Amino acid sequence: MRRLVLLTALSLPAQAPAQELPFDRARIESCLAASATQDEKLGCIGLGSESCRAGSAGGTTIGIVECTALERDFWDARLNATYRALRSHERAQDAEVAGLPYAQSQVDALQEMQRAWIGFRDTTCRYESAQYAGTLSRPVHIHCLMRLTAE
User: Fold this and answer.
1) What average pLDDT does range 71-81 have in this prediction?
2) Which of 44, 65, 80, 97 could form a disulfide with 103 if both were Cys (CB 3.0 to 4.6 A apart)?
3) Residue 127 has pLDDT above 90, yes or no
4) Structural domain boundaries of the chain?
5) What is the pLDDT of residue 27?
6) What per-residue confidence (pLDDT) applies to 57?
7) Which residues of 53-70 are buried (b: 16+ CB within 10 A; e: fewer)?
C-alpha cells in the first residue's frame, strides 16, 4: 500500500512555480507623498494591490487573498518601522524622567497599547469576516487586516 502511494505521488505532475504577483509599492508611496491630509492618505489604502486583484491572478479567491496579503505586508512593515522609531523615542523619554516621583514607563505603556490594538484588530477582522459564509470570508478577513494595519 505504501508503495502504491509513493508511485502515485511520483506520477503526479510537478507544480508550476508560483506566479509572481504584481504589487505596486510605488503607487502607494507616491499617493502618500502627494497626500496632505489624513483623509487623503486613507485613500491610498488598497492602491498597491489594485492592479494585482484586477489581473488574472487576482481573479480568484486565492488570488484576491494573496494580492491583498502583499499590501497588508507592506503596511505592516511601515507600522513596525514606526513602532520601532517611537519605541526608541520613548526609551529616551523614559531615561529623562527616571527617578522622578510618579514617573511611568512610556515604553511599557506603548507596548501595552500595541498589544491591545493587535487584539482589537484581530477581533474586529474576525467579526467582519464572520458576516460572510464560504469563500468570501477569507478575502474580507485579509482586507480588514490590511485596512486596519494601514490606518
Assistant:
1) 96
2) 97
3) yes
4) 60-150
5) 93
6) 65
7) beeebbeeeebbbbbbbb
Angle between helices 137-150 and 106-130 (to 10 degrees): 150
The C-alpha cell of 84 is what? Answer: 520601532
How many whole angstroms separate alpha carbon 105 and alpha carbon 42? Answer: 31
Q: Which CATH architecture has domain 60-150?
A: Up-down Bundle (1.20)
Q: How far, in Å, CA of 96 to CA of 81, rounded?
A: 23
Neighbours of 13 (CB within 10 A): 5
Query: Tens digits of per-residue pLDDT, 1-21?
Result: 444 333 333 333 333 335 677
- Extended beta strands in the chain, E state: none
Give residue for cell 507592506: 74
Residue 151, pLDDT score: 95
CB burial class (10 A; 0-12, 13-18, 19+) of residue 149? buried
Q: Looking at 62-71, 109-118, 137-146, which range is the least confident one?
A: 62-71
Sequence-separated (6 or more) residues with CB below 8 Å from residue 24: 47, 48, 49, 50, 51, 52
